[in-house]
Specification:
With about 270 residues, the protein is an alpha/beta fold. The protein is about 20% helix and about 25% strand.
């Protein structure tokens, strides 16, 4: 029952060329960066990634993109990565765009054994009708487009059939985990992590803090250990900021003249 492995390198050692990966995270929040970095060193290529976004330039999954290791991605948002845009438009990367809520439900369905489901999202658009460019050729021409999907009417409303997603490996990051693989995610880092963990046939979790079985109360478990195969302790890490918004520093002259200490919001 002890699922702890010694290192991130050991945890990803058997991920082979052509593997399909479901990866948790949203932007740069809750991304399993230690496992991604270990996979970069390991060298697996021709990977398919299923994730909300495919990294941010040279961070998170972006490091695999820059190294040419990803050949296909199934994502909701790809606008934050310049290299992804270049690879996509030059024919080096296939992109399957999926609405965000639909992507979440496709992963959840895959993890619970539901093969497909109907949703109103996308009806009347290219999501349902097909024709979204999936792959370009080297000359910038569309080489492959998304196929039309089945539409059915329920209660006078139309719904599109979406299929479940599963992956060879699920990669997730948790704040706390125990040796049995029960995981707790911190606040918004919960995002796609439980869903990616459910959808992976083999799920690998990097955790900041390892506790003993029983220390996490059952009602606090976000992803049960039955879905998790390996746990690697990575410790706390600095959190990258996807986009930093700043404002001009206010003049401290009036405060200084009054003998008061000038501060800027957020600084001590």
């Amino acid at each position: 029952m002890d699922k702890v492995v010694g290192s991130a390198a050991e945890a990803v050692a058997d991920i082979g060329d052509g593997a399909v990966l479901a990866v948790g995270g949203f932007g740069l929040c809750g991304v399993p960066v230690a496992l991604i970095d270990a996979l970069l060193e390991q060298g697996a290529s021709r990977l398919t990634t299923i994730s909300n976004n495919c990294g941010v330039d040279d961070k998170a999954l972006g490091v695999l993109l820059y190294a040419g290791r990803i050949s296909r991605t199934i994502s909701s948002f790809v606008g934050g990565n310049k290299e992804l845009a270049r690879l996509y438009l030059s024919g080096e990367l296939s992109v399957e765009l999926t609405p965000q809520g639909t992507l979440a439900e496709r992963l959840r369905a895959g993890g619970t054994g539901i093969p497909a489901f109907y949703t109103p999202t996308g009806v009347g658009t290219m999501v349902a009708d097909g024709g979204i460019p999936v792959r370009y050729d080297s000359d910038g021409n569309v080489a492959e487009t998304s196929a039309p999907k089945e539409i059915r009417e329920f209660g006078g409303r139309q719904y599109v059939l979406e299929t479940a997603l599963t992956a060879d490996f699920g990669l997730v990051r948790a704040a706390v985990g125990d040796r049995h693989g029960n995981l707790v995610f911190h606040e918004s880092a919960r995002n796609f992590n439980p869903l990616a963990g459910m959808a992976g046939r083999v799920t690998i979790a990097e955790v900041e803090t390892l506790v003993e079985p029983g220390e996490i109360t059952p009602e606090d478990v976000h992803l049960p250990g039955v879905f998790v195969d390996r746990v690697v302790v990575v410790g706390p890490a600095g959190k990258a900021i996807e986009k930093r918004t700043t404002r001009p520093r206010p003049s401290d002259a009036p405060l200084a003249a009054a003998g008061e200490e000038a501060t800027v919001e957020g600084e001590q």
